[in-house]
Amino acid sequence: VSTQSTGDGLAYELYGTRDVLERHRHRYEVDPKIVAQMVRETPLVFTGTDVTGQRTEIVELPRTLHPFFIAVQFHPEYLSRPMKPSPLFCGLVRAGRVVRDARAGEK
């Protein structure tokens, strides 16, 4: 499925494009009727939808609240390969290293 990123979140930064091609996970979805309420009442940022704009595919928290919080409604592992890992996996490892280095600097 092609996912359209807003172009200003972590997903865009990791993938380097607004067009993310991954396999959609069909079992669970965010109810489109509650997205507006969640935007008003939570710090969640909905940064990606399917190409119709109806189905949420990517949700993030600002990095001011968490160093790496991104939830996706697709399977990044399907296209990931040992020598070409998913951008999400690379981003998670990089974020972990940043946190580790910051903690090491505090000691």
Provide a concise account of the structure shown.
Helices cover 31% and strands 23% of the residues. The chain has helices at 10-15, 35-41, 87-106; strands spanning 2-5, 19-21, 23-24, 45-50, 56-60, 70-72, 74-75.
Textual characterization of the structure:
The chain is 31% helix and 23% strand. The protein has three helices and seven strands; from the N terminus they run βαββαββββα. The protein has helices at residues 10-15, 35-41, 87-106; strands at 2-5, 19-21, 23-24, 45-50, 56-60, 70-72, 74-75. The longest helix is centred in the last third of the chain and has 20 residues, at 87-106. The radius of gyration is 15 Å and the shape is globular.
Features:
5-stranded antiparallel β-sheet, 107 residues, 7 strands, alpha+beta, two-stranded antiparallel ribbon, 23% strand
SSE blueprint and pairings:
Blueprint: E1 2-5, H1 10-15, E2 19-21, E3 23-24, H2 35-41, E4 45-50, E5 56-60, E6 70-72, E7 74-75, H3 87-106
Antiparallel strand pairs: 1-2, 1-4, 3-7, 4-5, 5-6
Strand content: 15-25%
Counting H and I runs of at least 4 residues, what is the number of helices?
A: 3
Low-confidence stretches: none
Give the number of DSSP strands. 7
How would you sum up the global shape? globular
Instruction: Please describe the biggest sheet, giving its number of strands, its sense, and whether it closes into a barrel.
Output: 5 strands, antiparallel
The run of helices and strands is: EHEEHEEEEH
The helix/strand class is alpha+beta
Radius of gyration from CA coordinates: 15 Å
The helix content, as a percent range, equals 25-40%
Give the N-terminus to C-terminus distance in angstroms.
45 Å
Largest sheet strand order: 2-1-4-5-6
Overall pLDDT level: 91
